[in-house]
Every structure is written in structure tokens, then in C-alpha cells.
TrEMBL record:
PANTHER family: INACTIVE UBIQUITIN CARBOXYL-TERMINAL HYDROLASE 54 (PTHR22975:SF5), UBIQUITIN SPECIFIC PROTEINASE (PTHR22975). Residues 28-338 form the USP domain. This is USP domain-containing protein. Keywords: Hydrolase, Ubl conjugation pathway. GO terms for molecular function: cysteine-type deubiquitinase activity. CDD domains: Peptidase_C19.
Amino acid sequence: GDLLGSPGGGLQGLITTPRTMASFAPSKGLSNEPGQNSCFLNSALQVLWHLDIFRRSFRQLTTHKCMEDSCIFCALKSIFAQFQFSSERVLPSDVLRSALAKTFQDEQRFQLGIMDDAAECFENLLMRIHFHISAETREDICTAKHCIPHQKFAMTLFEQCVCNSCGATSDPLPFIQMVHYISTTSLCNQAVRMLECREKPTPDMFGELLRNASNMGDLRNCPSNCGEVLRIRRVLMNSPEIVSIGLVWDSDHSDLAEDVIHSLGTCLRLGDLFYRVTEERARQAELYLVGMVCYYGKHYSTFFFQTKIRKWMYFDDAHVKEVSYPRFGGYVCYLGSVCVHFHFVG
């Protein structure tokens, strides 16, 4: 199903145009002509370009397994060169859109003219980059030092159940994820519970909130069938430089939009996000919000913090604007859209 869904109503009162909003020429937009329905790809592209860690690492890659007219690596290299050197303020993303459609033709995904999911597009672009530069290693066990997706984005985890009554443990199940998905309903329910238990929000609350929300309803029977029902424990075994969080809307007409926005934090500690973190560097890591892909009114757009000018920018296909970034009580209100997929870096 759709990982992001449609957030529905509840935001009309929050949509405002801040006075400080102004055009900023150096940032480039991406074209999306009527019928192209490329906003999902344009959003994923803006994220990859504006993530400094990805952009600099990708620039250093020179050799790859080329797939000619369906080569996503070549298409990305081409558009990144235009981002860097073109004097045009609006660039076409057609070459990448075409390569994506040809690559996934057999699965009938990301086809020309058809709207698709920005989070799934983002993940699949990362996995195709892995294929082009590390084709000899499997997606789930890639340890290649030059593989940007696995070295920078991948969260290497295992999950396990431990019974406190009889001591039984399940076999650890290892897996890799590029995006950590969380239900908006669970997020809001946990936010209410946690705020009832403390006088005011604390710096570690956001990571703890995400961990509690991701564990809600994720129960298993005791491995020895002693009768206990157990929560899954997820352990992080590496220290990713970029962490992507995806919010899953449980219905097309959710009324939780405003609650979700006021539950979000801008700082994420990896040690709070999972039951246990094995690497010392990851235990100490504090990551900060740098980008958000948003979905509202059947349309994707992107907010991103530009490190060179120290400003937040808003990318809506061809339109690029500087935006103000108001805070309320330590939490952040994002203007104009519902946040569904956001990125943290150290």
C-alpha cells in the first residue's frame, strides 16, 4: 500500500505566508509540466542534492555499471552537474524520470505521467545507486566502503523478543532499513501519554516518542509459549550519518495533521530511538533536522536547510522560496504542508 497516504484536512488554519518569504536565485527548481506528475521525483531529487554528505560523496564516484538509457547513475550525474553549473533557475528532471520508468517497467512502478510515492522513490534511487556501484554485493549485506547508500543512510538492525518471565529469547532477526517508518496514530497517542507523565518536554523526548510509537501494537507471543506477550526489541548495530524518518498515515482522511506537527522535534538522539545501540559513536550521536518531504493536496514539496547560506528553503517543483522557521515550545510548526518524510544529520 501507499507508505505515505493522504493526510486529509486539519491544516487550513496553519497555512500562512510569512512576510520574510522571498525568492532566492542560487537555488534551482525542477520543472513539472502538466501531466508529468513528477513532483514525487523532484522532491526526492532535491533531498539528495541538498544532503551535503550525499552530494559530496556521490561527486567522488567515477566508475559504475552502466545501463545506458535506463542508467539512473548517469541520469543523476547529469542533473547534479546542471545543479552545480547551469545558469538556468529551473532544470528538467526528464532524463532521470525516463531512466526510472525504464528501470522499473517490469514492475509497472514510477511510470511516465503517473503519480507515485516520494518515500518509495527515494529508497529505490538509493538502492539503484547501490546496484550501479556495488552490484556484486547483496542489498541486505553490503559492506562496500564506497557504497554511499549503505555507508551513509542504512540502519543495520536486529530485532528480538526477550521474555522476562521465563527467560526465553527469540533468534535475532537482522535487517537493513533506509527509512524508519512510524504510524502517525501511534505517534500522536504516545505524545499524549508522554506529556501526561512529565511537566515539560525534554531534549530526549522526540527520540523516545518515536521509539515508543514504533513499538506500539508490535507484540509477539513468548518464544517458549509461556503465555506472555512481548514487545520487540530493536538494536542498532551501526552509526548512520543520515537518518530518514517516514510517517505513515493510517487513512486517507486523517484528522491528526495538527497533532502530528506539534509532536515533531528537531533533534534526534540515536540512543533514544532504539532499545539498544551497540556503537559508542551512535550512542553519543545527536542528529538535527535538515529536510522534509511533504504531501498535501495530492502534491509533494520539500523543505530543506541550506548549510551554505544558513537558511531554510521551500522547493515546490519550479518554485523556490526562502521560508521562516517558527518554533513553538521547543517543537516546530511547518508551514503549508504535512511532513511525511524527514531527514536528520549530525
